[in-house]
Fold:
Amino acid sequence: MTPPPARFSAPRIVITGGARRVGRAVALELARRGCALLLSYRDSRDECLQTAQDARQLGSPLVEVHALELCDAESIAAFAQFALSSAEVDGVVHSASSFESQPIGAVTASGASRQFASDAIGPLLLSQALAASLRGASTRGSMASGAGIVLFGDAHASRVPRRGYTAYLMAKAAAHALVRQLAVELAPTVRVNGIAPGVILWPESMSPAAREAYLAQVPLKRAGTPEEAAKLAAFLLLDANYCTGQILQLDGGRNL
Structure:
């Protein structure tokens, strides 16, 4: 007989793309706050295992890792099955993303489809697969204010378009729409919010001159940090009890 899923007094949070960059920072911030974690990775298994080890040392009561390919419906289903067979899920942070530059003239159907699958359709399918567990969070004691979902979009998807990233920003705009839609679909027991970052970590391909030109248009005159993004994600997930369907700009004022 299969044992029932485990329960924790602390929230158990799924973080997609938890191996590196902002996803890693979110994992470490939530570990400091005592959350149990399930981290996904696509290719960066060793880095994900290192993040898991670091999260345990920071106070997480349990950290698991599992592969996930957001462009593959079967992989999403397998990941959700693993998550729900192990324990209930109280929150999700959709941090995994594909970031591809496809200038007009170079956009392909396969590339655009891959971008939408990774950044919008994948998060939709995973949220749907975990929805029943999320809806029960408020009755389990682990998330008295109800479950939370946080999805990372992009500051340029709603305002101030950027050349060369049409398919990517269209996908992120769809992700912003997903935040609002899920907020309505999953209310009142699940809160759903988004974060629209500007530059948090510079793309490796971006030249110093391009970085300087970008910052010239940012009122705060600096890039953000993964830690700042992680603290905002933790706030929306754990503390913003009367906030849903919102997309917060984390861009140093770039949208002004």
